Amino acid sequence: MMLRGWAELGGRRLTRAGLEEMVRGEDPRVARLGGEFALEVDGWRARDHLGIIPGACPPGVLQRDGETVLRIEPEVRDLSLEEAVLEAVRRRADEGVVALSGGVDSALIAALAQRPCVAVGLEESHDLERARYVAEALDLELTTVEIPPDRLPEALGAVLPVIPERTPVNASIAATLYFVAEWAGTHGYERILAGQGADEVFGGYARYVDGGDAASMLVSDFASLPAQGARDQGVAGLFGSYLSMPYLDLAVLRAARALPPSSLVRDGLGKQPLRAVAAAHIPADIAGYPKKAMQYGSGIWRELRRLSRHNGYKNAVQGYLITLERNEHGR
User: Fold this and answer.
1) Which of 3, 51, 24, 25 is nearest to 248 (CA)?
2) Which residues pair with 146 in a beta bridge?
3) In three state form, how does the secondary structure of the chain look?
4) What is d(CA 205, CA 193) in angstroms, rounded to the nearest whole number?
5) Where does the pLDDT of residue 25 fall: very low under 50, low under 70, confident under 90, or very high at 90 and above?
6) pLDDT at 313
7) Which of 26, 179, 188, 197 gets the most CB atoms within 10 Å of its CB?
8) Is 269 buried (19+), middle (13-18) or exposed (0-12) by CB count in 10 A?
9) What are 79-113's pLDDT values in tens digits?
């Protein structure tokens, strides 16, 4: 059986053998499987409800020989947001490494999981400095990876073929994740605990602070997650790893959706409900730290623009990416 990720039933983690027996035996309880998984055994294929883990069938179904046998709709506990976040991290913290940028999303996961952490960025970048500060404050085990600027073309050449939308922003995010996944895979970690999804679920983007229809923005942002997941998991898969996402746990989503959209922003900062949970577990200055996007915090975006100018694309990063992709395919 090929299994990536993990599966649970009613809060109990399933072994590979137990999961295989359920699938082969056409056990109807498969319809209630939770977790983050993609599996293949003989002609059977299944993926978790949200499709967190990439696989060869649609999200949230069990298929046999390409035909859908049943839909996977796990039971979701009705928990407070704090209870849901703590439980989501606990269920993922038995293995893996935490991708730590120093923002509230990853800092809370790191504090709760108590797993080794890794931070990546160019020398003296915001994320490296911030991750060191957070790790010291929370007494975390941290490895920092300084990205040599001359390795960025290599990383871009590797990620461009595996990301669905080859825009400058997507490429810079993917290149940053490349170095996280490279370190994780090299050091034997399959699971990377990450804060992805927090901005889309809790209103972390600047446009929420600027006003507008928060409810509509939440719907739109959540709809963008599958494309982001395909990008991020595609990059992690280059090194045999996958991203595990506590903030997309179904119980966390249920708790978040019960919150009024008006509660997400206060005093010019989004994600207020999540920050309130964080403040109970990490220092207030870390819980309240403003968002810094990965591509900027790592220094990758700045270096990507410099490379583009150096290669004759003064105001067109996209042109530089197209050239890289053509070179990668020998065209």
Assistant:
1) 51
2) 121
3) CEEEEEEEECCEECCHHHHHHHHHCCCHHHHHCEEEEEEEECCEEEECCCCCCCCCCCCCEEEECCEEEEECCCCCCCCCHHHHHHHHHHHHCCCCEEECCCCHHHHHHHHHHCCCEEEEECCCCHHHHHHHHHHHHHCCCEEEEECCHHHHHHHHHHHHHHCCCCCHHHHHHHHHHHHHHHHHHHCCCCEEECCCCHHHHHCCCHHHHCCCCHHHHHHHHHHCHHHHHHHHHHHHHCCCCEEECHHHCHHHHHHHHCCCHHHCCECCECCHHHHHHHHCCCCHHHHCCCCCCHHHHCCHHHHHHHHHHHCCCCCCHHHHHHHHHHHHCCC
4) 21
5) confident
6) 83
7) 197
8) middle
9) 999 999 999 999 999 999 999 999 999 999 999 99
* Token duo for residue 96: 């893996």
Output the pTM of the full model: 0.94
Residue 329 has pLDDT above 60, yes or no: no
Structural domain boundaries in the chain: 2-71, 81-297
The CATH T-level fold of domain 81-297 is: Rossmann fold (3.40.50)
Quote the tokens at residue 182: 């490279």
% of the chain at pLDDT higher than 70: 98
Which tokens go with 81? 């947001």
